[in-house]
Write a structure and sequence with these properties.
With 245 residues, the chain is α/β, with parallel strands linked by helices. The chain has 9 helices and 9 strands. The chain has a 6-stranded mixed beta sheet, with helices on both faces. Strands 4-6-8 form a 3-stranded parallel beta sheet. Helix 1 (29-43) packs parallel to helix 2 (73-92). The protein starts with a strand and ends in a 14-residue tail after the last helix. The relative contact order is 0.17.
Length: 245
């Protein structure tokens, strides 16, 4: 079974679904590479209006890094480099990105949530920045511009779980829906956006990135992530809860 499913709609909206339900869409090296390849392909596609990141199972959008993947030291470094490439590709993606936030959105899953432009939350949302459990230097680059530094420190330092209502109150979510209808709501939002001139949307997205200085923020955090894996304690290690950031 492929780790990703893709569906292009007539209005220029493409849905990319993570499809590893048996591990709550935890990301192994191959799936990370697949996501990077899809983002690279779609970034060069002028017919794409809006990208929707979703899941084939409402149990989880993404539960973080795959704790079951067996990696030696070099494999661990290669995977962390792949994560850095994925985060950079998502940040640089030229078209608007809407994320379907259902079930577990933990660690790397939370980073994909924060790296998207708009988020639709399901009523079963369990969102957590789990990096602090292992001292992983990840979270501030994307989260602080979204909800402010003080609130970001709370979520990143504690690693606590945030449900749909709190995520909405924090301003993380654009819309909410029952989990089974969250993708439908996300596609409806994407379709509203897709009617606008694509070149204008891409120009506006570039303005947001430049004004928030996200390229520099993400690049700095990525450097620290790779250094943590290459020179520090690194991963793999299994934190409480069974997922890795």
């Amino acid at each position: 079974m492929p780790a990703l499913q893709r569906d292009r709609r007539d209005d220029g909206v493409e849905i990319v679904r993570l499809d590893r339900p048996d591990v709550r869409n935890a990301l192994d090296t191959a799936t990370i590479g697949g996501l990077v390849a899809v983002l690279t392909e779609l970034a060069a596609d002028p017919a794409l209006r809006v990208l929707v990141l979703s899941t084939t199972s409402t149990r989880a959008f993404c539960a973080g890094a795959d704790v079951g993947e067996q990696l030696d030291r070099e494999g661990g470094i290669a995977r962390m480099e792949a994560f850095a490439e994925l985060y950079a590709a998502l940040d640089a993606f030229p078209a608007p990105v809407v994320c379907v936030c259902v079930g577990n959105c933990v660690g790397a899953g939370a980073e994909l949530v924060a790296g998207s432009d708009l988020r639709v939350g399901g009523d079963n949302l369990k969102l957590a920045w789990a990096g602090s459990r292992l001292g992983v230097p990840v979270g501030p680059a994307r989260l602080a511009p979204l909800i402010g530094t003080a609130r970001a420190k709370d979520l990143v330092f504690t690693g606590r779980v945030v449900g749909m209502q709190e995520a909405l109150a924090l301003g993380l979510l654009t819309r909410t829906a029952p989990a089974a209808r969250a993708e439908e709501a996300a596609v409806a939002l994407a379709s509203e956006i897709a009617v606008h001139p694509p070149e204008g949307l891409r120009r506006l997205k570039a303005m947001f990135r430049d004004l928030d200085a996200t390229p520099a923020r993400v690049a700095h955090e990525n450097e620290l992530l790779v250094a943590f894996q290459r020179e520090g304690s690194g991963l793999p290690a299994r934190p409480p809860g069974g997922t890795r950031p």
